[in-house]
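Exercise 3.2. Students should predict the tertiary structure of the chain below and write it as structure tokens, then compare their answer with the key that follows.

Predict this chain's 3D structure.
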Amino acid sequence: MAKCLTKNANTRDAATVMLQCTANGGKLAGCSVLSDSAPGKGFDKAALCVAEAMPMGDKSGDVKIPMRFPGGA
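Answer key:
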């Protein structure tokens, strides 16, 4: 998560992002941003980056993924 955040957004800022994705084969695909509490600050891109590496186990189908970036780092 830290790598995605550092690459895309300011680590001192805080934000929450809600993604809608499709889980299949232990991974997430086709993610889109449903909400972003700090639009234009790169947290949407950071969340999408994190989702690419997030393991999903045996879940499948459409899932909503909430992400919280606490800031202050």
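Discussion points: The chain has a mean pLDDT of 93. The helical segments are 2-8, 43-53.
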